[in-house]
Amino acid sequence: AQSVTQPDIHITVSEGASLELRCNYSYGATPYLFWYVQSPGQGLQLLLKYFSGDTLVQGIKGFEAEFKRSQSSFNLRKPSVHWSDAAEYFCAVGVEGYSTLTFGKGTMLLVSP
Amino acid sequence: NAGVTQTPKFQVLKTGQSMTLQCAQDMNHEYMSWYRQDPGMGLRLIHYSVGAGITDQGEVPNGYNVSRSTTEDFPLRLLSAAPSQTSVYFCASKDRGYGYTFGSGTRLTVV
């Protein structure tokens, strides 16, 4: 079965600094990969997704992620963090032929002034 | 607006009570699923369905029942609520490609 690991439970970044959130997956074939963001008390918002093709994926709100097959990783990046980016971020993996997603446990992003 | 609708948004139950969380989608998606979200645990799959009349268990199915009599609806039933079922519940539907749509969630507290 596939699995997703987000090694960092919490990350604190200064406003204006760059951000990288890590995500590693375990699956034999090429998965399709997602990053979601959740503000407190809110639902899930899709930031970006990767299915195939260019391994650098652009998303909303200035986020991007890079799929690295050799490292089984799909790290999320943003060059300059804004205070409004403070939220919880979830990486998820889907598998061809399966109808559900497997989620990581999430990374809480705190933004300091 | 097309999407996944979950009701209610908030619910408080007493231990032992039963209730049904409703989920409806109007996108004609075949695939639907239920997740629960707990602090530090991410979202975990409870049950899912690949079409009307077909359901299967996910990672944490105990204490929950589902049925899928129509394409549009996928209710989640708690037969005898327990405090361990206090959680936020999300319903999702998926098209034949890679598009997932999530509902806004139901926050359930069992006292």
List the helices and strands and how they pair.
The complex is a heterodimer of chains A (about 110) and B (about 110).
Chain A lengths: L2 E3 L4 E5 L4 E3 L2 E3 L5 E7 L6 E6 L5 E3 L5 E5 L4 E6 L8 E8 L6 E3 L3 E6 L1
Parallel strand pairs in A: 2-12
Antiparallel strand pairs in A: 1-4, 3-9, 5-6, 5-10, 7-8, 8-9, 10-11, 10-12
Chain B lengths: L3 E4 L2 E4 L5 E7 L5 E8 L3 E10 L2 E4 L6 E3 L9 E3 L8 E8 L5 E3 L3 E5 L1
The proportion of strand residues of chain A reads over 45%
Separation, N- and C-terminal Cα atoms of chain A: 41 Å
Mean pLDDT of chain B: 95
Element order of chain A: H for helix, E for strand: EEEEEEEEEEEE
Indicate the multimeric state: heterodimer
By secondary-structure content and strand pairing, the structural class of chain A works out as mainly beta
H/E topology pattern of chain B: EEEEEEEEEEE
The total of beta strands of chain B comes to 11
Notes on the structure:
The complex is a heterodimer of chains A (113) and B (111). Chain A contains no helices and 12 strands. Chain A is mainly beta and 113 residues long. In chain A, the strands form 3 sheets. In chain A, strands 2, 5, 6, 10, 11 and 12 form a 6-stranded mixed beta sheet that branches. A 4-stranded antiparallel beta sheet of chain A has the order 3-9-8-7, with no helix packed on it. The radius of gyration of chain A is 13 Å and the shape is globular. The model of chain A has no long low-confidence stretch (mean pLDDT 93). With 111 residues, chain B is mainly β. Chain B is built from no helices and 11 strands. In chain B, the strands form 2 sheets. In chain B, strands 2, 4, 5, 6, 9, 10 and 11 form a 7-stranded mixed beta sheet that branches. Chain B has a 4-stranded antiparallel beta sheet with strand order 1-3-8-7, with no helix packed on it. In chain B, strand 4 and strand 5 form a beta hairpin. The radius of gyration of chain B is 13 Å and the shape is globular. The model of chain B has no long low-confidence stretch (mean pLDDT 95). At the A-B interface, strand 10 and strand 11 of A face strand 4, strand 5 and strand 9 of B.
